[in-house]
């Protein structure tokens, strides 16, 4: 089938774009009501869950992956230590809310500058250390974070190894029409059937409220990142990644931009940490170690490096693919029954298979599939396929 | 410099004990770092699965020696062959199809391998603790108070040096070594002098897996007991050793590994203000300082920019 | 007319979707120095890479009577084609001696060390520093090393991709002098791709001009030098 | 060359398949988890004796509308439960659905089989009110964040009656608020944090294990009586919730009894070795070495201490009791190293020859074997033992007013019986806030595993059961 050609800026193009956007907005609006009571689709005898808890976590992860993307995807500095910044954000939020009774959102006032500063501080020595050496040093940063949290001197603030339980809940205000929206959605044919018939419990209401809050923070973060990438400094970041010497001789201040990339990355990671704290009301040190850092890299690459949509996909992939891997108990077609620590094996094989299918990540894979259906071309190059 | 400003334990017996510990564990980290360096030289990729290939080798050696009652040395040698073969197969089937110049998918592939092999070991042999017999006699060469040198520690140290010598000879005095160095220096030119790049890389993977298995078989008896997470926790220190020594230098890997062992056992333990639970952090900090002065590690070649 | 060593016909080559060579034909005869001229992007480098099996091709490449267009690079090298790629193509982390040994990788005879000594005599700058890392040599020295490394395989055909690139004029002259000498002394057949047409034509016995992936003109160097269009486009006078 | 390449590939593939085949052969039995066919053999008498002591249980009567007395001033108030809350949710006509979240992956994946062992127990037990017990388990990889997600999803989709034996202190802390707000029982947390004995603030949460403060207290008493005042102690703690709890409580009680702590080291719980820390401790030459860590670090610490020639009396955490799991491997790598180490044991180690003829141990072994599980390996036996307590509370509730969440909580906070899994003579007594801890008695045992021994066993040091039953009251912040 030859793909349909759509000329950029044409009426058809605008309509396709409009349809895209509407689909996005409708999905974002309806999704939490569909999965607040988790869906349990069954595939090949395996029962998988899709719940709002995971969706909320995935949104936070998407922002964390976005933070890594700025640094690694767009600027080419491989970091295996971004969990350090996420953890810093999460603990700042948790500590301020629990110990000093701030509201969740107001902690961003502290999280943003502090994480930015830490990122810049880490970014300066990183100027001299490159490539895999940088990856290894940042890996150490990730490895040491849980230990730092557990230091006795910080115990009052972090509550040490038992984790920080944040008692303050994020309660939706009375005027928020959560139940009303639910009723309205139930009237939509087909989709409405998925939402069940129960009224939501207060826990589910809280999760829905948290969802919309997280979506707004995530939207702001992605918008910020998008504008940064499209701006002059953003182009400088990419130029440095593609050819450092070339960028330097064209007058780009390497030190400034590379340290700046660390700063921006840490900032977004810190925000992601705040989002995780909002989602879980709980922060624990051992969760924010090397595993977290490694799965951020998984999210980045599986989603699609140097691609903003890739970060969103990557965040969801990390959460759901991991969960579904452990929920796979029967191997389709072969009929093996899996018990015990097979989840990791399924995950490992899935990751390898995914890289074979889409070596550039899911985002690029989807673009490729879309390009079989239609292609958007600039108005003055009618008919010629864009390359790359 | 700043170390002098704080109190340092000076009991000579304790210092000797720590130095001996450091050399013992450090040579194990060095051996593992050597395996990492071989892969890095071959592909420019940090192989997350390196430790797990070694883990598989260790469990195969365990199964052969404890399960089937074979002598441990034979078990280890067979395990080295087994993992080398497996690594060669992995290279051929799931590494070679990828574009070698794009490292990101390869990172995920090795990570996937890491998860799959680790899980395979846990499922096959369970996560219960096991003990891998040492290839060396039990007991101490000498002991002074808490300081003691075990035969296995001495044996490990010597074996690692011999291993380094053998790898150096192999790389510098044999044709396959020349091919390996040529490929790691410039893939395209290597092709143009008639070197079969794929097979050479495959050889690198197999060699690295065999070295890793031997390293694990040396180190694990020093750790008393074995479980499927044992290589993950040593790998952090092996990574650090490789970075400290220089990622492309076999000699640097071994020396770097030993230095990391000494940092962890001597420096972190002796200097009062470093909490010992921060051992990883302290090691990383020292490496950071070294890299700031010498960005390609102590023995690494500062990369000639390839056009 | 002498015997053809390399015969290329209807050669097409592409990088992904982008076609670079659109069916070219040429012949290199034994003992000749053939030169391919052309502007940037004309497909000169691709032609050499195609001969070595480094790009995907269609059409026919006959070397010494055998069809080699579908063979792997390593096997083509074994048949006796040596390639000095653009940008030197040495092994920067290896010593000068190791580079030469690597050049003899496909050989199994015992005369390798004798050959190394021979090339150290031909290129005394290399003989003076056998243990120096190739990456630390100057540009001219690296080019000499690349040629010597290629010759170490005792090829029947030497491909050179813009050997003059990035070198000072006096060194270029020296280099081409040595290439001519190698051609004369060893009877080495060469296919040289160049932008520096003057020098190349001075040593060439046959020349082709490549333009946008097709051969535009071919003939004796004197003929090309005499061609008004060629002179203006490539010779600059 | 090409052929060798292909050959290597083939061999590798063949090897991989052999290994897979071998793995299937090895634990083909383990995969088939819950075969119940011939299980009815040994159960009958065991199941009934558990409830024999039930007659003495304090009758718990409702105090007033929606509030229920748990004892000691602790009260369960169902008026605070969310609207739509149902006392009998999770009870179907033939099922009692119990939720559990465990690490089935990651460093502690070994504990993932606890649920399997629990299910074996219930598959062999008589129905309760005509219902069988179903254990619904989820993997959290020991990550508290995952536990939060798991618990939420299980409440919403799995029709859970109560949660039981969730593993890990951070994990249980992370879900405690939610479960108490939702009025869903969080039973018998598989962690020794003393926080679980706090029925005044968290009436829906109860622990089970010997808690770390009780254990530390017994250590202190024992050291003081055995070594006298001025005895020196060097201590190693894991730098996690577990080790830090030991550290806190041991450092509270030691000075009062004249014990001198001369060296303390924390170790990274994920570290490959504890030798650097133990060498430092050994140099102190202390009389006593306290090992406040678990997992592989337990035998590693003992091996390193003995390797350094340190002759201290070694006291290891009660979590390291399983000889086959911890001390057998150490014995084969350093024979005799574990000989003479001491521990507080609270339960019958099923690998211990001393209990070989014990009816409970024989029942555990036979039922696990019948289910295709090796009773000496893995954590199924732990899960099996855990299930005894859950079974007791469910039966008590059924006998006193019928199965329901409130009755189960009351039965758990008001216990007086003897568990077969516990040491003879130890009673299990709870009384709300007045006595909020379940396991409070243990004996000091010493491992008999000399260098030439084939298998080891725990030998009672004094033979006295140290019972601090009721001494601790409830959690005091």
Provide the residue-averaged pLDDT of chain B. Answer: 87
CATH architecture classification name of the largest domain in chain D? 3-Layer(aba) Sandwich
| Fraction of helical residues of chain D | 25-40%
Alpha-carbon Rg of chain B, integer: 20 Å
- Identify the overall geometry of chain D: globular
**Number of helical elements of chain B:** 11
**Largest beta sheet of chain D, briefly?**
8 strands, mixed
Biggest contact: B-D, 67 and 57 residues
Helix content of chain B: 55-70%
Give me the CATH fold name of the largest domain in chain D: Rossmann fold
Low-confidence runs of at least 5 consecutive residues of chain D? 15-63
Account of the protein in words:
The complex is a heterotetramer of chains A (388), B (307), C (237) and D (477). Chain A has a single domain (52-174, 217-377), classed as ABC transporter involved in vitamin B12 uptake, BtuC, CATH 1.10.3470. Chain A has 15 helices and six strands. Chain A has helices at 11-35, 52-74, 83-100, 108-126, 131-149, 155-158, 178-186, 202-230, 232-242, 244-249, 254-280, 290-303, 308-327, 343-357, 362-373, and strands at 4-7, 42-43, 46-47, 164-165, 282-283, 374-377. In chain A, the strands form three sheets. Chain A has a two-stranded parallel ribbon with strand order 1-6. A two-stranded antiparallel sheet of chain A has the order 2-3. A two-stranded antiparallel ribbon of chain A has the order 4-5. In chain A, helix 2 runs parallel beside helix 8 (202-230), helix 4 (108-126) packs antiparallel against helix 11 and helix 13 runs antiparallel to helix 14 (343-357). The two termini of chain A are 21 Å apart. Chain B has a single domain, classed as ABC transporter involved in vitamin B12 uptake, BtuC (Orthogonal Bundle), CATH 1.10.3470. In chain B, helix 1 runs antiparallel to helix 10 (250-270). The longest helix of chain B has 32 residues, at 12-43. Chain B is globular. Mean pLDDT of chain B is 87; it is low at 1-5. Chain D is α/β, with parallel strands linked by helices. Chain D contains 14 helices and 18 strands. In chain D, strands 9, 10, 11, 12, 13, 16, 17 and 18 form an eight-stranded mixed β-sheet that branches. In chain D, helix 4 (114-123) crosses helix 13 and helix 5 packs parallel to helix 6. The model of chain D is unreliable at 15-63 (pLDDT under 50). Chains in contact: A-B, A-D, B-C, B-D. At the B-D interface, helix 1, helix 3, helix 4, helix 8 and helix 9 of B face helix 1, strand 10, helix 9, helix 10 and helix 11 of D.
Write the layout of secondary structure elements.
The complex is a heterotetramer of chains A (388), B (307), C (237) and D (477).
Chain A: E1 4-7, H1 11-35, E2 42-43, E3 46-47, H2 52-74, H3 83-100, H4 108-126, H5 131-149, H6 155-158, E4 164-165, H7 178-186, H8 202-230, H9 232-242, H10 244-249, H11 254-280, E5 282-283, H12 290-303, H13 308-327, H14 343-357, H15 362-373, E6 374-377
Parallel strand pairs in A: 1-6
Antiparallel strand pairs in A: 2-3, 4-5
Helix pairs in contact in A: 1-8, 2-8, 2-11, 2-12, 2-13, 3-4, 3-11, 4-11, 8-9, 8-11, 9-11, 12-13, 13-14
Chain B: H1 12-43, H2 50-67, H3 72-95, H4 103-125, E1 140-144, E2 147-150, H5 151-173, H6 175-185, H7 187-192, H8 197-219, H9 230-245, H10 250-270, H11 279-293
Antiparallel strand pairs in B: 1-2
Helix pairs in contact in B: 1-5, 1-8, 1-9, 1-10, 2-3, 2-4, 2-8, 2-9, 3-8, 5-6, 5-8, 6-8, 9-10, 9-11, 10-11
Chain C: E1 4-15, E2 18-29, E3 33-38, H1 44-51, E4 56-63, E5 66-67, H2 73-78, E6 81-84, H3 96-103, H4 112-122, H5 124-127, H6 139-151, E7 157-161, H7 169-186, E8 189-194, H8 197-203, E9 206-211, E10 214-219, H9 221-226, H10 228-235
Parallel strand pairs in C: 3-8, 3-9, 6-7, 7-8
Antiparallel strand pairs in C: 1-2, 1-4, 4-5, 9-10
């Amino acid at each position: 089938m030859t793909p349909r050609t759509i000329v950029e800026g044409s009426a058809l193009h605008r309509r396709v774009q409009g349809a895209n956007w509407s689909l996005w907005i409708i999905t974002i609006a309806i999704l939490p009501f569909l999965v607040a009571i988790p869906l349990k689709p069954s595939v090949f005898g395996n029962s998988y869950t899709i719940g709002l808890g995971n969706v909320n976590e995935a949104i936070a992860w998407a922002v964390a992956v976005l933070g890594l993307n700025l640094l690694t995807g767009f600027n080419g500095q491989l970091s295996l230590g971004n969990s350090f910044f996420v953890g810093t954000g999460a603990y700042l939020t948790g500590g301020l809310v629990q110990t000093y009774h701030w509201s969740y959102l107001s902690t961003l006032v502290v999280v943003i500058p502090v994480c930015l500063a830490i990122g810049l501080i880490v970014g300066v020595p990183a100027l001299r250390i490159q490539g895999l050496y940088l990856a290894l040093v940042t890996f150490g940063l990730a490895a040491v974070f849980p230990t730092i949290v557990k230091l006795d001197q910080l115990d009052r603030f972090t509550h040490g190894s038992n984790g920080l339980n944040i008692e303050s809940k994020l309660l939706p205000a009375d005027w928020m029409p959560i139940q009303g929206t639910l009723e309205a959605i139930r009237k939509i044919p087909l989709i409405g059937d998925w939402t069940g018939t129960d009224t939501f419990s207060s826990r589910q209401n809280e999760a829905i409220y948290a969802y919309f809050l997280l979506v707004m923070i995530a939207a702001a973060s992605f918008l910020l990142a998008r504008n940064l990438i499209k701006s002059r400094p953003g182009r400088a970041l990419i130029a440095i990644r593609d050819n450092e010497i070339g960028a330097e001789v064209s007058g780009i201040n390497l030190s400034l931009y590379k340290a700046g990339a660390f700063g921006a990355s840490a900032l977004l990671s810190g925000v992601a940490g705040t989002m995780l704290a909002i989602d879980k009301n709980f922060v624990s040190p051992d969760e924010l170690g090397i595993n977290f850092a490694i799965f951020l890299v998984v999210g980045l690459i599986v989603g699609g490096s140097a691609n903003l949509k890739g970060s969103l996909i990557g965040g969801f992939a990390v959460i759901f693919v991991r969960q579904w891997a452990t929920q796979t108990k029967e191997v389709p077609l072969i009929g093996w029954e899996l018990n015990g620590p097979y989840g990791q094996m399924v995950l490992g094989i899935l990751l390898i298979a995914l890289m074979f299918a889409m070596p550039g990540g899911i985002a690029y894979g989807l673009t490729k599939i879309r390009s079989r259906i239609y292609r958007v071309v600039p108005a003055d190059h009618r008919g010629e396929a864009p390359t790359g | 410099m700043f170390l002098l400003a704080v109190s340092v334990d000076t009991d000579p017996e304790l210092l000797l004990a720590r130095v001996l510990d450091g050399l013992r564990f450090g040579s194990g980290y060095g051996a593992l770092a050597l395996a990492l360096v071989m892969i890095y030289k071959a592909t420019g990729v940090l192989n997350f699965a390196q430790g797990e290939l070694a883990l598989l080798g260790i469990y195969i050696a365990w199964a052969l020696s404890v399960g089937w009652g074979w002598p441990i040395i034979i078990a280890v040698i067979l395990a080295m062959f087994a993992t080398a073969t497996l690594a060669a197969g992995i290279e051929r089937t799931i590494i070679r199809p990828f574009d070698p110049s794009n490292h990101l998918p390869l990172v995920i592939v090795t990570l996937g391998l890491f998860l799959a092999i680790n899980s395979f070991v846990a499922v096959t042999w369970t996560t219960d603790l096991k003990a891998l017999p040492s290839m060396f006699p039990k007991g101490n060469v000498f002991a002074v108070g808490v300081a003691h040198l075990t035969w296995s520690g001495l044996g490990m140290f010597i074996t690692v040096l011999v291993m380094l010598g053998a790898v150096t000879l192999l790389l510098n005095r044999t044709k396959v070594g020349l091919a390996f160095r040529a490929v790691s220096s410039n893939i395209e030119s290597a092709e143009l002098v008639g070197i079969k790049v794929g097979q050479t890389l495959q050889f690198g993977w197999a060699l690295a897996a065999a070295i890793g298995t031997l390293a694990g078989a040396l180190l694990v008896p020093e750790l008393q007991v074995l479980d499927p997470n044992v290589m993950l926790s040593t790998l952090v220190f092996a990574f650090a050793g490789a970075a400290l020594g220089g990622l492309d230098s076999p000699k640097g890997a071994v020396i770097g590994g030993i230095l990391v062992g000494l940092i962890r056992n001597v420096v972190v333990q002796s200097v009062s203000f470093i909490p010992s639970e921060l051992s990883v952090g302290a090691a990383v900090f020292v490496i950071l300082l070294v890299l700031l002065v010498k960005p390609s590690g102590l023995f690494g070649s500062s990369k000639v920019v390839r056009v | 007319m002498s015997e053809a060593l390399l015969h290329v016909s209807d050669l097409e080559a592409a990088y992904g979707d982008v076609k670079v060579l659109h069916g070219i034909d040429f012949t290199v005869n034994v003992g000749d120095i053939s030169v391919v001229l052309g502007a940037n992007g004309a497909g000169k480098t691709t032609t050499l890479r195609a001969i070595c099996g480094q790009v995907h091709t269609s059409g026919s490449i006959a070397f010494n009577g055998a069809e080699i267009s579908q063979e792997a690079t390593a096997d083509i090298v074994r048949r006796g084609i040596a390639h000095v790629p653009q940008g030197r193509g040495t092994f920067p982390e290896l010593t000068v001696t190791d580079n030469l040994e690597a050049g003899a990788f496909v050989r199994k005879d015992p005369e390798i060390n004798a050959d190394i000594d021979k090339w150290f005599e031909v290129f005394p700058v290399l003989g003076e520093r056998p243990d120096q890392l190739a990456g630390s040599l100057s540009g001219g020295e690296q080019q000499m090393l690349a040629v010597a490394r290629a010759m170490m395989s005792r090829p029947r055909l030497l491909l050179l991709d813009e050997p003059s690139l990035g070198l000072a004029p006096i060194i270029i002259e020296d280099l081409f002098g040595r290439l001519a000498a190698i051609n004369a002394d060893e009877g080495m057949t060469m296919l040289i791709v160049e932008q520096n047409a003057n020098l190349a034509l001075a040593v060439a016995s046959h020349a082709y001009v490549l333009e946008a992936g097709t051969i535009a003109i071919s003939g004796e160097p004197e003929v090309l030098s005499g061609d008004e269009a060629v002179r203006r486009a490539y010779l600059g006078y | 060359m090409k052929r060798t390449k292909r050959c290597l590939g083939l061999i590798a593939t063949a090897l991989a398949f052999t290994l897979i085949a071998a793995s299937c052969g090895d634990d083909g039995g383990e995969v088939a988890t819950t075969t119940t066919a011939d299980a009815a053999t040994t159960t009958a008498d065991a199941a009934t004796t558990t409830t024999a002591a039930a007659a003495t249980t304090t009758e718990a009567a409702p105090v007033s509308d929606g509030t229920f007395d748990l004892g000691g001033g602790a009260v369960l108030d169902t008026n605070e439960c969310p609207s739509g809350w149902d006392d009998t949710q999770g009870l179907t006509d033939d099922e009692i659905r119990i939720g559990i979240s465990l690490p089935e992956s990651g460093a502690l994946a070994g504990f993932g089989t606890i649920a399997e062992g629990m299910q074996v127990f219930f598959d062999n037990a008589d129905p309760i009110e005509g219902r069988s017990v179903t254990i619904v388990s989820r993997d959290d990889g020991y990550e508290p964040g995952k536990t939060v997600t798991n618990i939420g999803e299980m409440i919403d989709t799995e029709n859970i009656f109560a949660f039981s034996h969730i593993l890990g202190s951070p994990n249980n802390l992370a879900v405690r608020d939610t479960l108490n707000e939702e009025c869903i029982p969080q039973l018998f947390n598989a962690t020794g944090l003393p926080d679980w004995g706090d029925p005044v603030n968290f009436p829906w949460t109860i622990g089970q294990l010997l808690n770390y403060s009780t254990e530390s207290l017994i250590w202190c008493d024992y050291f003081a009586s055995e070594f006298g005042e001025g005895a020196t102690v060097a201590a190693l703690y894991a730098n996690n919730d577990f080790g830090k709890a030991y550290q806190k409580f041991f450092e509270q009680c030691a000075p009062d009894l004249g014990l001198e702590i001369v060296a303390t080291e924390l170790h990274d719980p994920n570290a490959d070795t504890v030798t650097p820390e133990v060498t430092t401790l050994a140099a102190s030459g202390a009389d006593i070495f306290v090992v406040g860590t678990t997992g592989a670090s337990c035998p590693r610490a003992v091996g390193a201490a003995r390797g350094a020639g340190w002759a201290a009396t070694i006291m290891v955490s009660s979590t390291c009791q399983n000889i086959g799991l911890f001390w057998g491997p150490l014995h084969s790598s350093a024979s005799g190293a574990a000989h003479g180490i001491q521990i507080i044991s609270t339960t019958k180690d099923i690998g211990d020859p001393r209990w070989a003829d014990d009816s409970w141990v024989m029942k555990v072994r036979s039922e696990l074997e019948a289910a295709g599980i090796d009773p000496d390996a893995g954590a199924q036996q732990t899960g099996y033992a855990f299930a005894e307590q859950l079974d007791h509370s469910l039966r008590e509730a059924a006998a006193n007013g019928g199965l329901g969440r409130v009755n189960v909580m009351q039965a758990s906070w008001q216990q007086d019986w003897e568990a077969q899994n516990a040491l003879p003579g130890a009673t299990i007594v709870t009384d709300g806030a007045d006595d909020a801890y379940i396991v409070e008695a243990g004996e000091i045992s010493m491992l008999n595993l000399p260098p030439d021994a084939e298998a080891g066993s725990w030998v009672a040091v004094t033979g006295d059961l140290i019972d601090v039953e009721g001494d601790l009251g409830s959690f005091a912040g």
